Protein backbone atom coordinates (compact mmCIF):
# COMPACT_ATOMS: atom_id res chain seq x y z
CA UNK A 1 0.00 0.00 0.00
CA UNK A 2 2.83 2.37 0.94
CA UNK A 3 4.57 1.55 -2.32
CA UNK A 4 1.49 2.48 -4.30
CA UNK A 5 1.14 5.88 -2.63
CA UNK A 6 4.79 6.56 -3.39
CA UNK A 7 4.43 5.54 -7.03
CA UNK A 8 1.29 7.62 -7.40
CA UNK A 9 3.06 10.66 -5.94
CA UNK A 10 5.99 10.26 -8.34
CA UNK A 11 3.56 9.81 -11.23
CA UNK A 12 1.72 13.03 -10.38
CA UNK A 13 5.03 14.89 -9.89
CA UNK A 14 6.24 13.69 -13.31
CA UNK A 15 3.04 14.81 -14.99
CA UNK A 16 3.27 18.23 -13.30
CA UNK A 17 6.88 18.65 -14.45
CA UNK A 18 5.88 17.81 -18.02
CA UNK A 19 2.96 20.25 -17.78
CA UNK A 20 5.43 22.94 -16.71
CA UNK A 21 7.57 22.12 -19.75
CA UNK A 22 4.78 22.05 -22.29
CA UNK A 23 2.15 24.57 -21.18
CA UNK A 24 4.12 27.56 -22.55
CA UNK A 25 4.64 25.79 -25.88
CA UNK A 26 0.95 24.84 -26.07
CA UNK A 27 -0.05 28.43 -25.29
CA UNK A 28 2.05 29.64 -28.25
CA UNK A 29 0.47 27.05 -30.54
CA UNK A 30 -3.05 28.04 -29.47
CA UNK A 31 -2.25 31.75 -29.73
CA UNK A 32 -0.94 31.30 -33.27
CA UNK A 33 -4.55 30.64 -34.30
CA UNK A 34 -5.86 33.66 -32.43
CA UNK A 35 -6.71 36.44 -34.89
CA UNK A 36 -6.67 39.07 -32.18
CA UNK A 37 -3.60 41.28 -32.55
CA UNK A 38 -2.78 41.55 -28.85
CA UNK A 39 -3.35 37.90 -28.02
CA UNK A 40 -6.33 38.61 -25.77
CA UNK A 41 -9.06 36.09 -25.04
CA UNK A 42 -11.53 34.87 -26.22
CA UNK A 43 -9.79 33.28 -29.15
CA UNK A 44 -10.87 34.58 -32.49
CA UNK A 45 -9.92 31.59 -34.66
CA UNK A 46 -8.00 32.55 -37.78
CA UNK A 47 -5.10 31.56 -40.01
CA UNK A 48 -4.16 35.17 -40.70
CA UNK A 49 -0.74 35.02 -38.98
CA UNK A 50 0.26 32.04 -41.10
CA UNK A 51 -0.89 33.94 -44.18
CA UNK A 52 1.07 37.00 -43.08
CA UNK A 53 4.13 34.85 -42.38
CA UNK A 54 4.16 33.45 -45.91
CA UNK A 55 3.14 36.69 -47.63
CA UNK A 56 6.48 37.27 -49.28
CA UNK A 57 7.58 40.40 -47.49
CA UNK A 58 7.93 38.92 -44.03
CA UNK A 59 11.33 39.47 -42.39
CA UNK A 60 10.80 36.31 -40.37
CA UNK A 61 10.50 34.20 -43.50
CA UNK A 62 13.61 35.75 -45.04
CA UNK A 63 15.56 35.10 -41.84
CA UNK A 64 14.29 31.52 -41.77
CA UNK A 65 15.47 30.97 -45.34
CA UNK A 66 18.91 32.36 -44.54
CA UNK A 67 19.18 30.24 -41.37
CA UNK A 68 18.05 27.10 -43.19
CA UNK A 69 20.58 27.34 -46.01
CA UNK A 70 23.35 28.46 -43.66
CA UNK A 71 22.69 25.61 -41.21
CA UNK A 72 22.61 23.03 -44.01
CA UNK A 73 25.99 24.25 -45.23
CA UNK A 74 27.43 24.10 -41.71
CA UNK A 75 25.91 20.68 -41.00
CA UNK A 76 27.28 19.15 -44.21
CA UNK A 77 30.75 20.57 -43.52
CA UNK A 78 30.57 19.28 -39.95
CA UNK A 79 29.46 15.88 -41.25
CA UNK A 80 32.51 15.48 -43.49
CA UNK A 81 35.00 16.94 -41.04
CA UNK A 82 33.54 15.13 -38.03
CA UNK A 83 33.36 11.72 -39.71
CA UNK A 84 36.93 11.92 -41.00
CA UNK A 85 38.13 13.04 -37.57
CA UNK A 86 36.28 10.25 -35.77
CA UNK A 87 37.68 7.59 -38.14
CA UNK A 88 41.15 9.03 -37.61
CA UNK A 89 40.68 9.09 -33.85
CA UNK A 90 39.62 5.47 -33.86
CA UNK A 91 43.06 4.55 -35.21
CA UNK A 92 44.92 6.53 -32.56
CA UNK A 93 46.45 4.79 -29.54
CA UNK A 94 44.01 4.89 -26.61
CA UNK A 95 45.84 7.49 -24.54
CA UNK A 96 46.11 9.96 -27.42
CA UNK A 97 42.53 9.34 -28.42
CA UNK A 98 41.36 10.41 -24.97
CA UNK A 99 43.52 13.53 -25.09
CA UNK A 100 42.32 14.41 -28.55
CA UNK A 101 38.74 13.79 -27.49
CA UNK A 102 39.03 16.33 -24.71
CA UNK A 103 40.39 18.91 -27.18
CA UNK A 104 37.57 18.26 -29.65
CA UNK A 105 34.92 18.52 -26.94
CA UNK A 106 36.20 21.92 -25.72
CA UNK A 107 33.58 23.83 -27.73
CA UNK A 108 30.86 21.90 -25.88
CA UNK A 109 32.27 22.56 -22.41
CA UNK A 110 33.21 26.23 -22.72
CA UNK A 111 30.29 28.68 -22.43
CA UNK A 112 29.28 29.85 -25.90
CA UNK A 113 29.50 33.45 -24.80
CA UNK A 114 33.22 33.07 -24.09
CA UNK A 115 33.73 30.98 -27.22
CA UNK A 116 32.00 33.60 -29.37
CA UNK A 117 34.02 36.43 -27.84
CA UNK A 118 37.29 34.56 -28.33
CA UNK A 119 36.43 33.93 -31.99
CA UNK A 120 35.36 37.53 -32.57
CA UNK A 121 38.64 38.77 -31.09
CA UNK A 122 40.74 36.51 -33.27
CA UNK A 123 38.74 37.41 -36.39
CA UNK A 124 39.18 41.09 -35.57
CA UNK A 125 42.87 40.51 -35.04
CA UNK A 126 43.41 38.96 -38.46
CA UNK A 127 41.26 41.65 -40.04
CA UNK A 128 38.33 39.38 -40.91
CA UNK A 129 35.95 40.97 -38.42
CA UNK A 130 32.26 40.10 -38.50
CA UNK A 131 31.70 38.19 -41.73
CA UNK A 132 29.91 35.24 -43.27
CA UNK A 133 33.19 33.32 -43.29
CA UNK A 134 33.70 33.97 -39.59
CA UNK A 135 30.14 33.01 -38.70
CA UNK A 136 30.51 29.85 -40.78
CA UNK A 137 33.81 28.84 -39.16
CA UNK A 138 32.55 29.64 -35.66
CA UNK A 139 29.33 27.69 -36.05
CA UNK A 140 31.16 24.74 -37.61
CA UNK A 141 33.59 24.70 -34.69
CA UNK A 142 30.80 24.35 -32.13
CA UNK A 143 28.89 21.61 -33.98
CA UNK A 144 31.69 19.30 -35.21
CA UNK A 145 32.09 17.79 -31.70
CA UNK A 146 28.53 16.41 -31.93
CA UNK A 147 29.29 14.51 -35.15
CA UNK A 148 32.53 13.17 -33.66
CA UNK A 149 30.69 12.04 -30.53
CA UNK A 150 27.95 10.22 -32.45
CA UNK A 151 30.31 8.54 -34.93
CA UNK A 152 32.71 7.42 -32.19
CA UNK A 153 29.68 6.06 -30.38
CA UNK A 154 28.96 3.81 -33.37
CA UNK A 155 32.52 2.46 -33.23
CA UNK A 156 31.95 1.67 -29.57
CA UNK A 157 28.74 -0.27 -30.26
CA UNK A 158 30.03 -2.50 -33.03
CA UNK A 159 33.01 -4.87 -32.96
CA UNK A 160 35.63 -5.57 -35.63
CA UNK A 161 34.26 -9.00 -36.57
CA UNK A 162 32.64 -7.89 -39.81
CA UNK A 163 35.84 -6.16 -40.94
CA UNK A 164 37.84 -9.27 -40.07
CA UNK A 165 35.38 -11.50 -41.90
CA UNK A 166 35.59 -9.28 -45.00
CA UNK A 167 39.39 -9.39 -44.84
CA UNK A 168 39.40 -13.17 -44.52
CA UNK A 169 37.11 -13.37 -47.54
CA UNK A 170 39.70 -11.40 -49.52
CA UNK A 171 38.27 -7.88 -49.64
CA UNK A 172 40.73 -5.03 -50.27
CA UNK A 173 41.12 -2.41 -47.50
CA UNK A 174 39.40 0.28 -49.60
CA UNK A 175 36.44 -1.98 -50.24
CA UNK A 176 36.28 -2.94 -46.56
CA UNK A 177 36.19 0.74 -45.64
CA UNK A 178 33.37 1.68 -47.99
CA UNK A 179 31.28 -1.48 -47.75
CA UNK A 180 31.70 -2.39 -44.11
CA UNK A 181 33.10 0.38 -41.92
CA UNK A 182 31.29 3.35 -43.46
CA UNK A 183 28.04 1.41 -43.65
CA UNK A 184 28.28 0.66 -39.96
CA UNK A 185 28.80 4.35 -39.18
CA UNK A 186 25.88 5.71 -41.21
CA UNK A 187 23.31 6.00 -38.37
CA UNK A 188 25.88 7.86 -36.26
CA UNK A 189 26.75 10.15 -39.16
CA UNK A 190 23.09 10.96 -39.83
CA UNK A 191 22.16 11.67 -36.24
CA UNK A 192 25.33 13.71 -35.69
CA UNK A 193 24.57 15.77 -38.79
CA UNK A 194 20.95 16.34 -37.82
CA UNK A 195 22.03 17.38 -34.35
CA UNK A 196 24.62 19.78 -35.85
CA UNK A 197 21.92 21.24 -38.01
CA UNK A 198 19.60 21.87 -35.07
CA UNK A 199 22.32 23.30 -32.84
CA UNK A 200 23.53 25.62 -35.61
CA UNK A 201 19.99 26.66 -36.54
CA UNK A 202 19.38 27.73 -32.93
CA UNK A 203 22.80 29.07 -32.01
CA UNK A 204 21.94 32.60 -31.05
CA UNK A 205 25.11 33.41 -29.17
CA UNK A 206 27.64 32.63 -31.91
CA UNK A 207 25.59 34.38 -34.59
CA UNK A 208 24.95 37.37 -32.34
CA UNK A 209 28.70 37.96 -32.16
CA UNK A 210 29.90 36.79 -35.55
CA UNK A 211 27.14 37.63 -38.05
CA UNK A 212 28.01 40.52 -40.39
CA UNK A 213 26.40 43.81 -39.37
CA UNK A 214 22.87 44.09 -40.68
CA UNK A 215 22.53 40.38 -41.46
CA UNK A 216 19.74 38.79 -39.47
CA UNK A 217 19.63 35.03 -39.10
CA UNK A 218 16.50 33.59 -37.52
CA UNK A 219 17.76 33.61 -33.90
CA UNK A 220 18.79 37.25 -34.31
CA UNK A 221 15.45 38.16 -35.88
CA UNK A 222 13.56 36.42 -33.06
CA UNK A 223 15.73 38.24 -30.51
CA UNK A 224 14.75 41.60 -32.02
CA UNK A 225 11.07 40.63 -32.05
CA UNK A 226 11.04 39.27 -28.50
CA UNK A 227 12.38 42.58 -27.25
CA UNK A 228 9.44 44.35 -28.81
CA UNK A 229 6.84 42.16 -27.06
CA UNK A 230 3.93 40.10 -28.38
CA UNK A 231 4.29 39.25 -32.07
CA UNK A 232 1.54 37.03 -33.46
CA UNK A 233 3.29 35.99 -36.68
CA UNK A 234 6.15 34.70 -34.55
CA UNK A 235 3.66 32.42 -32.79
CA UNK A 236 2.87 30.93 -36.19
CA UNK A 237 6.55 30.44 -36.98
CA UNK A 238 7.19 28.98 -33.52
CA UNK A 239 4.38 26.48 -34.07
CA UNK A 240 5.90 25.39 -37.39
CA UNK A 241 9.32 25.09 -35.74
CA UNK A 242 8.02 22.98 -32.86
CA UNK A 243 6.31 20.65 -35.34
CA UNK A 244 9.52 20.43 -37.41
CA UNK A 245 11.64 19.77 -34.30
CA UNK A 246 9.28 17.03 -33.18
CA UNK A 247 9.57 15.42 -36.62
CA UNK A 248 13.38 15.51 -36.51
CA UNK A 249 13.35 14.06 -32.99
CA UNK A 250 11.14 11.24 -34.23
CA UNK A 251 13.56 10.56 -37.11
CA UNK A 252 16.49 10.56 -34.68
CA UNK A 253 14.62 8.15 -32.47
CA UNK A 254 14.00 5.81 -35.40
CA UNK A 255 17.76 5.83 -36.06
CA UNK A 256 18.32 4.37 -32.62
CA UNK A 257 19.30 7.65 -31.07
CA UNK A 258 18.72 7.82 -27.33
CA UNK A 259 18.97 10.39 -24.58
CA UNK A 260 22.38 8.93 -23.72
CA UNK A 261 23.81 10.17 -27.03
CA UNK A 262 23.12 13.78 -26.16
CA UNK A 263 24.41 13.66 -22.65
CA UNK A 264 27.53 11.85 -23.81
CA UNK B 1 43.06 13.72 -39.44
CA UNK B 2 45.66 16.45 -39.79
CA UNK B 3 43.25 19.01 -41.26
CA UNK B 4 40.86 18.45 -38.40
CA UNK B 5 43.66 18.88 -35.88
CA UNK B 6 44.52 22.18 -37.56
CA UNK B 7 40.84 23.13 -37.50
CA UNK B 8 40.48 22.58 -33.78
CA UNK B 9 43.80 24.24 -33.12
CA UNK B 10 42.76 27.37 -35.04
CA UNK B 11 39.14 27.59 -33.94
CA UNK B 12 39.21 26.27 -30.43
CA UNK B 13 42.57 26.36 -28.68
CA UNK B 14 44.07 29.38 -30.42
CA UNK B 15 41.08 31.70 -29.81
CA UNK B 16 41.18 30.81 -26.11
CA UNK B 17 44.90 31.54 -25.96
CA UNK B 18 44.30 34.81 -27.78
CA UNK B 19 41.51 35.69 -25.36
CA UNK B 20 44.02 35.41 -22.53
CA UNK B 21 46.50 37.56 -24.46
CA UNK B 22 43.88 40.15 -25.36
CA UNK B 23 42.90 40.55 -21.74
CA UNK B 24 46.20 42.42 -21.34
CA UNK B 25 45.57 45.01 -24.05
CA UNK B 26 44.39 48.56 -23.57
CA UNK B 27 40.95 49.35 -24.99
CA UNK B 28 40.07 48.01 -28.43
CA UNK B 29 41.96 46.40 -31.25
CA UNK B 30 42.61 48.81 -34.09
CA UNK B 31 40.63 48.21 -37.26
CA UNK B 32 43.78 46.70 -38.81
CA UNK B 33 44.30 44.43 -35.80
CA UNK B 34 46.89 46.70 -34.18
CA UNK B 35 47.34 46.76 -30.44
CA UNK B 36 47.54 50.10 -28.65
CA UNK B 37 49.47 49.03 -25.55
CA UNK B 38 49.95 46.14 -23.16
CA UNK B 39 48.68 46.65 -19.64
CA UNK B 40 47.35 44.92 -16.53
CA UNK B 41 44.89 47.75 -15.91
CA UNK B 42 41.96 45.55 -16.95
CA UNK B 43 42.53 43.23 -14.00
CA UNK B 44 43.24 46.07 -11.58
CA UNK B 45 40.00 47.72 -12.65
CA UNK B 46 38.03 44.49 -12.32
CA UNK B 47 39.00 43.90 -8.71
CA UNK B 48 39.23 47.51 -7.54
CA UNK B 49 35.49 48.08 -7.86
CA UNK B 50 32.83 45.81 -6.43
CA UNK B 51 30.78 45.66 -9.63
CA UNK B 52 32.42 42.55 -11.05
CA UNK B 53 32.67 40.65 -7.77
CA UNK B 54 29.05 41.40 -6.88
CA UNK B 55 27.75 40.35 -10.29
CA UNK B 56 29.91 37.22 -10.29
CA UNK B 57 28.63 36.23 -6.86
CA UNK B 58 25.05 36.94 -7.88
CA UNK B 59 25.44 34.89 -11.08
CA UNK B 60 26.93 31.93 -9.25
CA UNK B 61 24.09 32.19 -6.73
CA UNK B 62 21.46 32.24 -9.47
CA UNK B 63 23.22 29.34 -11.23
CA UNK B 64 23.27 27.23 -8.07
CA UNK B 65 19.64 28.03 -7.29
CA UNK B 66 18.57 27.13 -10.83
CA UNK B 67 20.56 23.88 -10.65
CA UNK B 68 19.04 22.98 -7.28
CA UNK B 69 15.48 23.64 -8.48
CA UNK B 70 16.18 21.57 -11.60
CA UNK B 71 17.45 18.64 -9.50
CA UNK B 72 14.40 18.79 -7.20
CA UNK B 73 11.99 18.90 -10.15
CA UNK B 74 13.86 16.44 -12.37
CA UNK B 75 14.91 13.66 -9.99
CA UNK B 76 11.43 12.28 -9.21
CA UNK B 77 10.34 12.93 -12.80
CA UNK B 78 13.33 11.05 -14.23
CA UNK B 79 12.64 8.20 -11.82
CA UNK B 80 9.01 8.20 -12.87
CA UNK B 81 9.89 8.06 -16.56
CA UNK B 82 12.58 5.39 -16.06
CA UNK B 83 10.81 3.08 -13.63
CA UNK B 84 7.16 3.85 -12.95
CA UNK B 85 5.54 4.67 -16.27
CA UNK B 86 4.86 1.74 -18.60
CA UNK B 87 7.75 0.81 -20.89
CA UNK B 88 5.50 1.55 -23.85
CA UNK B 89 5.08 5.20 -22.82
CA UNK B 90 8.68 5.60 -21.73
CA UNK B 91 10.04 6.21 -25.20
CA UNK B 92 7.42 8.87 -25.91
CA UNK B 93 8.15 10.67 -22.65
CA UNK B 94 11.90 10.73 -23.32
CA UNK B 95 11.23 12.06 -26.81
CA UNK B 96 8.95 14.72 -25.36
CA UNK B 97 11.80 15.87 -23.12
CA UNK B 98 14.11 16.06 -26.13
CA UNK B 99 11.79 18.44 -28.01
CA UNK B 100 12.39 21.54 -25.83
CA UNK B 101 16.05 20.51 -25.68
CA UNK B 102 16.19 21.01 -29.44
CA UNK B 103 13.92 24.05 -29.61
CA UNK B 104 15.45 27.49 -30.05
CA UNK B 105 16.42 28.96 -26.70
CA UNK B 106 14.82 32.27 -27.69
CA UNK B 107 11.49 30.64 -28.49
CA UNK B 108 11.48 29.02 -25.04
CA UNK B 109 12.20 32.40 -23.43
CA UNK B 110 9.47 33.99 -25.49
CA UNK B 111 7.00 31.23 -24.55
CA UNK B 112 7.73 31.71 -20.86
CA UNK B 113 7.40 35.49 -21.22
CA UNK B 114 3.90 35.06 -22.63
CA UNK B 115 2.95 33.00 -19.58
CA UNK B 116 4.50 35.39 -17.07
CA UNK B 117 3.49 38.75 -18.57
CA UNK B 118 0.75 40.83 -17.04
CA UNK B 119 -2.58 39.51 -18.26
CA UNK B 120 -0.84 36.25 -19.22
CA UNK B 121 -1.93 32.77 -18.19
CA UNK B 122 -0.21 32.70 -14.80
CA UNK B 123 -1.26 36.17 -13.68
CA UNK B 124 -4.86 35.67 -14.85
CA UNK B 125 -4.96 32.38 -12.94
CA UNK B 126 -3.54 33.95 -9.79
CA UNK B 127 -5.87 36.91 -10.23
CA UNK B 128 -8.94 34.68 -10.46
CA UNK B 129 -7.86 32.83 -7.35
CA UNK B 130 -7.54 36.19 -5.63
CA UNK B 131 -3.85 35.63 -4.90
CA UNK B 132 -2.42 38.46 -6.96
CA UNK B 133 -3.39 41.38 -9.11
CA UNK B 134 -3.70 40.03 -12.67
CA UNK B 135 -2.38 43.27 -14.18
CA UNK B 136 0.86 42.92 -12.22
CA UNK B 137 3.66 40.64 -13.32
CA UNK B 138 6.90 39.17 -12.06
CA UNK B 139 8.50 39.76 -15.45
CA UNK B 140 11.55 42.03 -15.41
CA UNK B 141 12.88 40.83 -12.08
CA UNK B 142 15.46 38.33 -10.82
CA UNK B 143 12.81 35.66 -9.99
CA UNK B 144 11.69 35.84 -13.63
CA UNK B 145 15.28 35.13 -14.72
CA UNK B 146 15.38 32.10 -12.41
CA UNK B 147 12.04 30.77 -13.72
CA UNK B 148 13.08 31.20 -17.36
CA UNK B 149 16.46 29.52 -16.76
CA UNK B 150 14.83 26.58 -14.95
CA UNK B 151 12.39 26.25 -17.82
CA UNK B 152 15.19 26.26 -20.41
CA UNK B 153 17.55 23.82 -18.71
CA UNK B 154 15.17 21.42 -16.96
CA UNK B 155 15.10 19.01 -19.97
CA UNK B 156 18.92 18.67 -19.74
CA UNK B 157 18.64 17.57 -16.12
CA UNK B 158 15.74 15.19 -16.80
CA UNK B 159 17.57 13.53 -19.71
CA UNK B 160 20.89 13.09 -17.95
CA UNK B 161 19.28 11.76 -14.75
CA UNK B 162 17.06 9.48 -16.80
CA UNK B 163 20.00 7.92 -18.61
CA UNK B 164 21.55 6.94 -15.25
CA UNK B 165 18.40 5.94 -13.42
CA UNK B 166 17.38 3.73 -16.32
CA UNK B 167 20.35 1.47 -15.49
CA UNK B 168 19.31 0.89 -11.87
CA UNK B 169 18.38 -2.77 -11.80
CA UNK B 170 15.05 -3.64 -10.26
CA UNK B 171 16.62 -6.77 -8.78
CA UNK B 172 19.03 -4.64 -6.76
CA UNK B 173 16.10 -2.79 -5.23
CA UNK B 174 14.26 -6.04 -4.43
CA UNK B 175 17.45 -7.44 -2.93
CA UNK B 176 17.87 -4.36 -0.80
CA UNK B 177 14.28 -4.63 0.43
CA UNK B 178 14.61 -8.35 1.09
CA UNK B 179 17.71 -7.72 3.15
CA UNK B 180 15.64 -5.43 5.32
CA UNK B 181 16.64 -2.00 4.11
CA UNK B 182 13.91 0.62 4.21
CA UNK B 183 12.91 2.90 1.39
CA UNK B 184 15.25 5.69 2.44
CA UNK B 185 18.22 3.41 2.99
CA UNK B 186 17.68 1.74 -0.37
CA UNK B 187 17.63 5.13 -2.04
CA UNK B 188 20.86 6.28 -0.37
CA UNK B 189 22.76 3.02 -0.85
CA UNK B 190 21.44 1.67 -4.14
CA UNK B 191 19.73 4.29 -6.29
CA UNK B 192 21.75 7.41 -5.50
CA UNK B 193 25.21 5.93 -6.20
CA UNK B 194 24.11 4.66 -9.61
CA UNK B 195 22.64 8.04 -10.50
CA UNK B 196 25.75 10.04 -9.56
CA UNK B 197 27.32 10.20 -13.04
CA UNK B 198 24.02 11.43 -14.49
CA UNK B 199 23.58 13.90 -11.66
CA UNK B 200 27.07 15.25 -12.24
CA UNK B 201 26.63 15.70 -15.99
CA UNK B 202 23.21 17.24 -15.35
CA UNK B 203 24.75 19.75 -12.94
CA UNK B 204 27.39 20.68 -15.53
CA UNK B 205 24.84 21.04 -18.31
CA UNK B 206 22.63 23.30 -16.19
CA UNK B 207 25.09 25.25 -14.06
CA UNK B 208 27.61 26.37 -16.71
CA UNK B 209 25.13 27.96 -19.13
CA UNK B 210 22.97 29.48 -16.38
CA UNK B 211 25.91 31.18 -14.63
CA UNK B 212 27.04 32.55 -17.99
CA UNK B 213 23.64 33.58 -19.31
CA UNK B 214 23.25 37.07 -20.73
CA UNK B 215 20.21 36.79 -23.00
CA UNK B 216 17.76 35.93 -20.22
CA UNK B 217 18.77 38.73 -17.84
CA UNK B 218 18.63 41.13 -20.78
CA UNK B 219 15.14 40.09 -21.84
CA UNK B 220 13.33 39.32 -18.58
CA UNK B 221 15.66 40.59 -15.83
CA UNK B 222 14.68 44.24 -15.91
CA UNK B 223 16.94 46.94 -14.54
CA UNK B 224 18.35 45.03 -11.55
CA UNK B 225 18.51 41.66 -13.31
CA UNK B 226 22.03 42.11 -14.66
CA UNK B 227 24.38 39.12 -14.43
CA UNK B 228 28.08 38.70 -15.14
CA UNK B 229 27.29 37.59 -18.71
CA UNK B 230 25.48 40.89 -19.28
CA UNK B 231 28.54 42.80 -18.07
CA UNK B 232 30.82 40.85 -20.43
CA UNK B 233 28.37 41.25 -23.30
CA UNK B 234 28.07 45.01 -22.76
CA UNK B 235 31.83 45.40 -23.25
CA UNK B 236 31.38 44.15 -26.79
CA UNK B 237 27.99 45.57 -27.73
CA UNK B 238 27.64 48.94 -26.00
CA UNK B 239 30.72 50.04 -24.06
CA UNK B 240 33.14 48.68 -26.66
CA UNK B 241 36.13 47.95 -24.47
CA UNK B 242 37.35 44.62 -25.84
CA UNK B 243 40.43 44.40 -23.65
CA UNK B 244 38.33 44.69 -20.50
CA UNK B 245 35.74 42.32 -21.97
CA UNK B 246 38.42 39.68 -22.66
CA UNK B 247 39.81 40.05 -19.15
CA UNK B 248 36.31 39.58 -17.71
CA UNK B 249 35.73 36.46 -19.85
CA UNK B 250 39.11 35.05 -18.85
CA UNK B 251 38.47 35.46 -15.11
CA UNK B 252 34.91 34.22 -15.57
CA UNK B 253 36.22 31.06 -17.26
CA UNK B 254 38.70 30.44 -14.42
CA UNK B 255 36.02 30.88 -11.75
CA UNK B 256 33.66 28.57 -13.66
CA UNK B 257 36.35 25.87 -13.92
CA UNK B 258 37.04 26.22 -10.20
CA UNK B 259 33.35 25.78 -9.36
CA UNK B 260 33.13 22.70 -11.58
CA UNK B 261 36.27 21.29 -9.97
CA UNK B 262 34.79 21.80 -6.48
CA UNK B 263 31.48 20.21 -7.47
CA UNK B 264 33.25 17.25 -9.08
CA UNK B 265 35.40 16.68 -5.99
CA UNK B 266 32.45 17.00 -3.61
CA UNK B 267 30.27 14.61 -5.62
CA UNK B 268 33.09 12.09 -5.91
CA UNK B 269 33.68 12.24 -2.17
CA UNK B 270 29.98 11.92 -1.39
CA UNK B 271 29.79 9.09 -3.87
CA UNK B 272 32.67 7.21 -2.23
CA UNK B 273 31.30 7.70 1.28
CA UNK B 274 28.07 5.92 0.35
CA UNK B 275 29.87 3.17 -1.51
CA UNK B 276 29.25 4.27 -5.09
CA UNK B 277 31.27 2.97 -8.00
CA UNK B 278 32.20 5.53 -10.64
Tell me what you see in this structure.
The complex is a heterodimer of chains A (264) and B (278). Chain A is mainly α and 264 residues long. Chain A has a single domain, classed as Orthogonal Bundle (MetI-like fold), CATH 1.10.3720. Chain A is 78% helix and 0% strand. Chain A has 13 helices and no strands. Chain A is globular and about 70 Å long. The model of chain A has no long low-confidence stretch (mean pLDDT 83). With 278 residues, chain B is mainly α. Chain B has one domain: MetI-like fold, CATH 1.10.3720.10. In chain B, helix 3 crosses helix 7 and helix 4 crosses helix 7. The radius of gyration of chain B is 23 Å and the shape is globular. The mean pLDDT of chain B is 84. At the A-B interface, helix 1, helix 3, helix 4, helix 5 and helix 6 of A face helix 1, helix 3, helix 4, helix 5 and helix 7 of B.
Strands, helices and their partners?
The complex is a heterodimer of chains A (264) and B (278).
Chain A: H1 2-31, H2 48-53, H3 59-90, H4 94-104, H5 106-109, H6 112-125, H7 132-157, H8 161-168, H9 173-202, H10 204-210, H11 218-227, H12 232-254, H13 259-263
Chain B: H1 2-22, H2 41-48, H3 50-84, H4 87-102, H5 105-116, H6 121-128, H7 142-165, H8 170-178, H9 183-211, H10 215-220, H11 228-237, H12 242-273
Q: How do you describe this structure in short?
A:
The complex is a heterodimer of chains A (264) and B (278). By secondary structure, chain A is mainly α.
List keywords for this structure.
heterodimer, A: 264 residues, mainly alpha, MetI-like fold, 78% helix, B: mainly alpha, 12 helices, 76% helix
Find the CATH topology of chain A: MetI-like fold
What is the makeup of the main sheet of chain B?
Answer: none
For this structure, the quaternary state is: heterodimer
Strand content of chain B: under 5%
Q: Please identify, by name, the CATH architecture of chain B.
A: Orthogonal Bundle
Number of strands of chain B: 0
> What's the mean pLDDT score of chain A?
83
Under CATH, the homologous superfamily of chain A reads MetI-like
The dominant shape of chain B is globular
The number of distinct structural domains of chain A comes to: 1
Number of helices of chain B: 12
Do you know the CATH topology of chain B?
A: MetI-like fold
CATH class of chain B reads: Mainly Alpha
The pLDDT mean of chain B sits at 84
Please state the CA-atom Rg of chain A, rounded to the nearest Å: 23 Å
Structural class of chain B: mainly alpha
Amino acid sequence: MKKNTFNLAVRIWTILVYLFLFTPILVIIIMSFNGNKYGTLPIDFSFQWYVQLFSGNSDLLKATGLSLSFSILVAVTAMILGTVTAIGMQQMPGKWRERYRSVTSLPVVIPWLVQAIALLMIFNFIGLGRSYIGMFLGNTAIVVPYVIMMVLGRFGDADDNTENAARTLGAKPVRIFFDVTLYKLVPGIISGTLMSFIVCFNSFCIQYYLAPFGVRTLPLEIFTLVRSGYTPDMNALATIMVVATTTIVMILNKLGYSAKNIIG
Amino acid sequence: MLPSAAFFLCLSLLPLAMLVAFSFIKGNLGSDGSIAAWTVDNFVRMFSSWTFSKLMLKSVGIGLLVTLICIILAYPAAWGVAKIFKAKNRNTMVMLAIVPFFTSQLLLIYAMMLILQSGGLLMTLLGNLGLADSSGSILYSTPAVVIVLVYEYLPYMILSLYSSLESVEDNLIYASHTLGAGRFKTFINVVLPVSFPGLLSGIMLVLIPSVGSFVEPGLVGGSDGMMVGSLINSQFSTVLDMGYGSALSFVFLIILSLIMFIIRTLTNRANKSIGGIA
